[in-house]
């Protein structure tokens, strides 16, 4: 697993570019005696471990893609690709799933049903993602999958522990682009123009009232502007500013309400300052909802594997998003957080210094193997 992880970490690839990563995964599966399936125009890899006994098929999923981050970990196997890094731990996910495949292959005679291994591209893409396209290509068929299980490293969970939650676990993630249009001009004579910079600033501030004043305090919502583009020179007022951001919600009803409120508020704020705004709003990944009964079965198996003291039940959903939610919309299953947090390593996901302890590889493989055993035993 360390060898696989090192190779994958050194040559990261962004969403929908994972051709080299796909080849490495396929090579590793071949080395384990598992025949990989690849797809034209899609960078996913899948394989099925067939076993003598007939029983429920469990699918295990890992993601392939990296992030546009310049690595600053100082690891001896740091990224060799400028501006690209496995800053979200997908290298750990892939190596752990390959490790689980090796263990399960060795113990195939003890399994109570087939196991399908899904190596999915484009999880970080954020809107369509790779899961839906994988499902369209039969990821949950041939054989028919009864249960799906996934996991993600988590810096906020102690190394060696596993976090779980029944029901909603991760937020829906939507994407918006706001363009504020006005009449540009000389910065020394703002009264002769309509200042879209000022209007855009008011829009940013006004969006926060969607969270603080327009929904129940117990209903989690996040509205964040991540990019602002506008202007070409310090003494010129531009005629357009573009803002881009994300909305995170946990309840389906709230998701639609926030979109409507955002469109209305942006339009009125812009108009009040003599400008005009357009909003492009696109729904991304849905809420990730763990199936309660399936989660209980997996947690029971993990407790036997790790002990009570290493299982952490989450009290509330996180506002991150995952397109594993699309598998859970099709089949019962559960998603888990694999702890990688230590007092020495506090860098969060997506950080240029994110460098989880490699002992997480053993824990990650053990989690997946235990989940298969627990679900097939039931």
SSE topology:
Blueprint: H1 2-10, H2 19-31, E1 37-39, E2 42-49, E3 58-63, H3 90-106, E4 115-120, H4 131-136, E5 147-158, E6 162-164, E7 167-170, E8 172-181, E9 185-186, H5 196-207, H6 209-212, E10 221-230, E11 236-237, E12 240-249, H7 252-272, E13 276-283, E14 288-290, H8 292-306, E15 311-313, H9 325-328, E16 333-341, H10 360-377
Parallel strand pairs: 3-4, 3-5, 5-16, 6-15
Antiparallel strand pairs: 1-2, 2-4, 6-16, 7-14, 8-12, 8-13, 9-11, 10-12
Helix pairs in contact: 1-3, 3-10, 5-7, 8-10
CATH homology superfamily of the largest domain: Zn peptidases
The proportion of strand residues reads 25-35%
CATH secondary-structure class of the largest domain: Alpha Beta
Termini separation (Å)? Answer: 29 Å
List keywords for this structure.
eight-stranded mixed beta sheet; 10 helices; four-stranded antiparallel beta sheet; Alpha-Beta Plaits; single chain; 2 domains; 378 residues; Aminopeptidase; alpha/beta; elongated
